[in-house]
């Protein structure tokens, strides 16, 4: 799939879901503050939802065609930002340099979740916040088996997306403790990518604690 075609498909799918997904973006991003890094910005649908508590915004995206769309969308908002082409597994930033790191529907498609999360941990300040919305492996065993069966064809048509990743487990294994966690469903999406988590986390400095969780 060419970069331009992939970008067009990503734009179409994001625009299709944005009417229902936009409130979730706003609710998550209202917690962003200070110097903010968005990993895997895609075509830039988050930019307009960042609050005034953000003093600097940096967008990263590995695909140049998607990053160009994100750049244009960001410029339409009039908000100052910087766009950098970079993989989540190799962020070109100094250690402990961001107050907030944001990931929305990104960890499903990175080549290596553990490497990406290690990089997020590296660039986040000790008192910083990791904000995320991700679709995840289903808790229901029957639904999870379907995710496993369809993982390979879905990955081909959905730009490398893995529908069956146990992303929450990997976030915690990467050294994050959860501050908040909501479970829900990704709007207007096929069943294999519908289970969704929204949350915030901080760098672990003490022994693990129980997951904070509220029903959606």
How does this model look, in words?
Helices cover 35% and strands 25% of the residues. With 216 residues, it is α/β, with parallel strands linked by helices. The protein has one domain: Rossmann fold. It has a 7-stranded mixed sheet with strand order 3-2-1-4-5-7-6, with helices on both faces. α1 crosses α2.
User: What is the CATH-assigned architecture?
Assistant: 3-Layer(aba) Sandwich
Shape estimate: globular
Structural class: alpha/beta
How much helicity do the residues have? Answer: 25-40%
Structure annotation, total helices: 5
Q: Strands of the biggest beta sheet: in what spatial order? A: 3-2-1-4-5-7-6
| Spatial extent as radius of gyration | 16 Å
Could you state the order of secondary-structure elements as H and E?
HEEHEEHEHHEE
How far do the termini sit from each other?
Answer: 36 Å
**Largest sheet, described in full?**
7 strands, mixed
Which topology does CATH recognise?
Answer: Rossmann fold
**pLDDT averaged over residues:** 89
Number of strands: 7
* CATH class division: Alpha Beta
Runs in which pLDDT lies below 50 for 5 or more consecutive residues are 5-9
Beta-strand share of residues: 25-35%
Supply the CATH superfamily name.
Vaccinia Virus protein VP39
Structure characteristics:
seven-stranded mixed β-sheet; 25% strand; alpha/beta; 5 helices; Rossmann fold; 216 residues
How would you briefly describe this protein structure?
This protein is α/β, with parallel strands linked by helices and 216 residues long. The protein contains five helices and seven strands; from the N terminus they run αββαββαβααββ. Strands 3-2-1-4-5-7-6 form a seven-stranded mixed β-sheet, sandwiched between helices.
